[in-house]
Write a structure and sequence with these properties.
The chain is of the alpha+beta class. The chain contains five helices and four strands; from the N terminus they run αααβαβαββ. It has helices at residues 2-46, 50-59, 66-79, 103-107, 121-133; strands at 83-90, 108-119, 138-148, 158-170. The longest helix is centred in the first third of the chain and has 45 residues, at 2-46.
Length: 171
């Protein structure tokens, strides 16, 4: 009776503790593997030159940084003798439907941008070439233009350009 009522419950408790110990050992092994991978990634990250890290942070900034974006776009327009009329930022409405998001989608967000500029065709072509080479990622999706003749201007016709696109940033 002592064996059945005394040792059997103790033996059952020992088995439970052994199972918990095995789980903890597996968890410890997984944590050590994660720490090893973290250390490898840290070494790889530290091997990236600082100039490249600066380019990456310019290409995909933390937060939208609308002021810096406006300065960059204005400087680019001024460089090519164009007049930047306006820039609008349109945030995308969150839909009510549930969608599966992968980790990369949670890290990167986008914002729609539309802007109007005025200038000659040649200045616009050079503007677009520099816009393509700009470090910050901008996907232009729509482009339209029309001729504008100012009343006080007797020279060549200026064109007004309307562009819509998307730019990205880290959340």
């Amino acid at each position: 009776a002592v064996l059945v009522f005394g040792l059997l419950p103790a033996w059952s408790g020992v088995q439970t503790v052994r199972a918990e110990i095995k789980k903890l050992i597996r968890l410890n092994d997984e944590l050590q593997e994660v720490a090893r991978i973290r250390d490898e990634l840290t070494v790889q990250y530290n091997a990236i030159p600082q100039g490249d890290l600066n380019k990456l942070s310019t290409m995909l900034p933390s937060g939208f940084g609308s002021a810096q974006f406006l300065r960059d776009m204005e400087a680019l327009a001024t460089k090519h003798g164009m007049f930047l009329k306006n820039i609008e930022f349109v945030t995308k409405e969150k839909t009510q439907t549930t969608q599966i998001q992968f980790p990369a989608q949670r890290l990167v967000a986008s914002i729609d941008v539309s802007f109007n500029a005025r200038g000659s065709y040649e200045s616009f072509r050079s503007y677009l070439k520099d816009l393509e080479k700009m470090v910050r990622i901008i996907d232009i999706s729509d482009l339209s233009f029309s001729g504008v003749q100012l009343a006080e201007q007797k020279g060549p016709v200026l064109l007004e350009y309307s562009m819509k696109g998307v730019t990205y940033y880290l959340r």
